[in-house]
From TrEMBL:
PANTHER family: SERPENTINE RECEPTOR (PTHR22941), SERPENTINE RECEPTOR, CLASS H (PTHR22941:SF308). It comes from Caenorhabditis remanei (Caenorhabditis vulgaris). Keywords: Membrane, Transmembrane, Transmembrane helix. The chain crosses the membrane at residues 18-39, 51-72, 92-111, 132-151, 188-212, 232-256, 268-289. This is Serpentine Receptor, class H. It comes from the Eukaryota. Pfam families: 7TM_GPCR_Srh.
Length: 324
């Protein structure tokens, strides 16, 4: 077991907070631009996806801001949280919920594509009711997924002893701070998050598989409509996949410490800062990958030579092509 703490600036709470606050200042204008583009500049052809796109974007904005506390997910899955000297621990449940709702938001985007492209009864009252029930179940589970962990928190004096045993390099002023505590236990946390992940990913795989099969195998629609649907679906997949990769790289490092027993405070800080940047990447990808959003964004920045070529003759699109 290796625990590295050099007691330098890059391992300090001050550096971590400064980095996150600086990132926040840089992200805010980009996020506001994203909200404006979705609400005001979404074309009619993408009208069906406007709300899911906005919801996922807002979730991307909120989720990174929930990583202000130090979080150590180490050694057999024990979750230790240092909430910071100036943070209110009572807000932790709200922050965890904001992190959890990212899964249902992504699910809603792919369900939206499945509903309006594959389902023939997409606009019936019964179908709308079923979708509403599905959304309620997803967000309700996201709300309560870690509730068992919070209801089964160990005695924090014992938790601090466990922390010192597993992370002996941590300074005592962190371990003994009132806002340093352990959530649940290794088995309970693994079961809760594992089942929630299976629940979310099963839905995503189902909706993606059904939609891909429809848009790439169905021959009953025009070639132009099929191309538009395929192009938009690819763009949605890229929009979600790229930020997901940004999350996975630092997450893999943090989780690897569970099995390698090599903990480095500086690397953990940089990993969490990288995790916080995924919302910025998600917004930039969204604004660039979708042609209508890209065109309007370039107009705002006055980059005319890139969007002038988009002003071509208007082509009439069949009603079925507007199911975006």
């Amino acid at each position: 077991m290796s625990c590295t703490f050099r007691n330098n600036y890059f391992e300090s709470e001050e550096f971590f907070k400064l980095a996150l606050h600086s990132l926040f200042v840089f992200q805010v204008p980009i996020h506001i631009l994203g909200v404006y583009i979705i609400i005001m500049k979404t074309p009619n052809e993408m009208g069906k996806t406007k709300f899911p796109m906005l919801l996922m974007h807002l979730t991307n904005i909120c989720s990174p801001k929930t990583c202000i506390p130090y979080l150590f997910w180490l050694f057999y899955g024990n979750t230790f949280i240092y909430w910071g000297a100036h943070m209110d621990p009572r807000l932790l449940r709200t922050h965890i919920f904001l992190l959890s709702v990212f899964g249902p938001a992504v699910t809603m985007v792919f369900e939206n594509r499945y509903n309006y492209l594959v389902r023939l009864d997409c606009d019936t009252h019964s179908r709308r009711f079923k979708r509403a029930v599905n959304f309620f179940i997803n967000y309700f589970i996201a709300l309560i997924v870690l509730l068992p962990s919070f209801l089964n928190m160990p005695d924090q004096s014992v938790a601090r002893q466990i922390a010192l045993k597993k992370l002996p390099c941590l300074p005592l002023d962190i371990v003994n701070h009132p806002t340093f505590f352990m959530v649940g236990n290794e088995h309970l946390n693994f079961v809760c998050t594992g089942l929630f992940g299976i629940f979310i990913w099963t839905q995503i795989f189902f909706f993606v598989a059904k939609t891909v099969k429809f848009i790439f195998q169905t021959k009953s629609q025009s070639q132009q409509t099929a191309q538009l649907q395929r192009k938009f679906f690819r763009a949605v997949c890229i929009q979600i996949t790229f930020p997901f990769v940004v999350i996975m790289i630092p997450s893999c490092y943090i989780l690897s410490t569970t099995y390698t027993y090599n903990y480095d405070m500086a690397f953990t800080n940089f990993s969490l800062i990288s995790l916080n940047s995924h919302g910025l990447f998600a917004t930039i990808i969204m604004l660039l990958i979708h042609k209508p959003y890209r065109t309007e964004t370039l107009k705002i920045f006055g980059i005319k030579k890139f969007y002038k070529s988009n002003k071509v003759a208007v082509v009439r699109i069949s009603p079925s092509a507007t199911n975006f």
